[in-house]
Write a structure and sequence with these properties.
The chain is mainly α. 17% of the residues lie in helices and 0% in strands.
């Protein structure tokens, strides 16, 4: 289950979220099962985040840092991963139907 404080902070502001990540580099963001559908998260730092079974339907993750993130079972349908970094991300069982990976790095089909 997601950490509600993490979800709330992420939904509030990408700038605030990224600042919090810089201030707390040892905390692993827990966004498991979170509903982030439709969120605009351009440039967000989700490196190493736990996103198992999260609803990322139609999320804008352009230029996002998703290195080593765990997207196991996540619904990423229609999400935009344009120029995102997915190096080392775990994507087992995730739904990428109609997702856009233009210019993304580290994506393994």
């Amino acid at each position: 289950m997601a950490n509600h404080d993490h979800v709330k902070l992420l939904k509030l502001s990408v700038i605030g979220w990224n600042h919090w990540r810089r201030e707390h580099p040892d905390i692993i963001p827990d966004l498991r099962n979170a509903d982030l559908s439709g969120a605009m998260l351009t440039g967000v730092n989700l490196r190493g985040a736990l996103l198992q079974n999260a609803n990322l339907h139609a999320v804008g993750l352009m230029q996002a840092d998703l290195r080593e993130a765990d997207l196991t079972g996540a619904n990423c349908s229609e999400a935009d991963f344009i120029v995102a970094n997915l190096t080392g991300a775990v994507m087992t069982g995730a739904n990428f139907h109609e997702a856009d990976f233009t210019g993304a790095s580290g994506f393994r089909d």
